[in-house]
Amino acid sequence: MHKVMEESTKLLRCRARVAVEGPVNVADRTEGVIEAATDCRDALMALASLPGAPPELQAMSRPELIELCRDGVESLAESLTVFVDEAHEALDDNGGSQHIA
């Protein structure tokens, strides 16, 4: 769980960097990535019975949380694909001259 929290923090830092450096259309795609990653983290926190897990998740059964986590991982993969595609397109449009985190 410690590693998940560490990686979530890194992801938020990367999102902030993309928001500042742009381009805007790429920065906008970070929202789905962050939402999916947060959903995964919250489900894992509830599975591990850690303080800070959302109360509605704490009330769920273990199988429900596992399914929620599985859905979150799939959503995260899809969001990352959209983000990467948007970033590649932005690089191509700008001749590769714009740095994207």
Features:
78% helix, elongated, single chain, disordered C terminus
Could you explain how this protein is built, in words?
This protein is mostly helical. The protein is built from 5 helices and no strands. Helix 1 packs antiparallel against helix 3 (about 30-45) and helix 3 (about 30-45) runs antiparallel to helix 5. The chain is elongated. It starts with a helix and ends in an 8-residue tail after the last helix. Mean pLDDT is about 85; it is low at about 95-100.
Report the principal-axis shape: elongated
- Provide the succession of SSEs: HHHHH
Termini separation: 25 Å
Uncertain stretches of 5 or more adjacent residues: 96-101
What summary fits the major beta sheet? Answer: none
What's the helix count?
A: 5
Find the count of extended strands (DSSP E, 2+ residues).
Answer: 0
Mean pLDDT equals: 84
- Counting helices, strands and paired strands, the structural category is mainly alpha
Short description:
The protein is built from 5 helices and no strands.
List the helices and strands and how they pair.
Layout: H1 2-21, H2 24-28, H3 30-47, H4 55-58, H5 62-93
Helix pairs in contact: 1-3, 3-5
